[in-house]
Inverse folding.
């Protein structure tokens, strides 16, 4: 049975808690947190990213997050809290669901860059 983007987003939003920018900032202050920007490179180049965030475009996420992948990024560690963001929250929701499916347990979606860029210094 075919799945629509709307259905995929509903499933992702049900699996990955949405947090506020204040909650994200507190998690970052607490430590052992990975912040991931899943926007495309031109978006990041145009607006910058949250200080300390790792940029991994949505299309490469699975490869960077899987320790068995030759493209694995050592910043991805299943013991860390992972906070994701994109431009408006859709890609970060889908990315969070993928990470949950891959065994990451503490995954959160803060939504769009503009929603929290003021709460955490760029």
């Amino acid at each position: 049975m075919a799945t629509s983007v709307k259905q995929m987003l509903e499933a992702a939003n049900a699996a990955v808690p949405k947090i506020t920018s204040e909650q994200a900032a507190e998690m970052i202050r607490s430590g052992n947190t990975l912040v991931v920007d899943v926007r495309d490179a031109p978006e990041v180049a145009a607006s910058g990213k949250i200080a300390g965030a790792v940029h991994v475009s949505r299309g490469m996420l699975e490869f960077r997050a899987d320790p068995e992948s030759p493209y694995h990024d050592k910043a991805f560690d299943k013991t860390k809290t992972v906070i994701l963001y994109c431009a408006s929250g859709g890609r970060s929701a889908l990315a969070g669901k993928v990470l949950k499916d891959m065994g990451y347990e503490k995954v959160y979606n803060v939504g769009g860059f503009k929603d929290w860029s003021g709460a955490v210094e760029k």
About this structure: The domain at 5-121 is CATH 3.40.250.10 (Oxidized Rhodanese; domain 1).
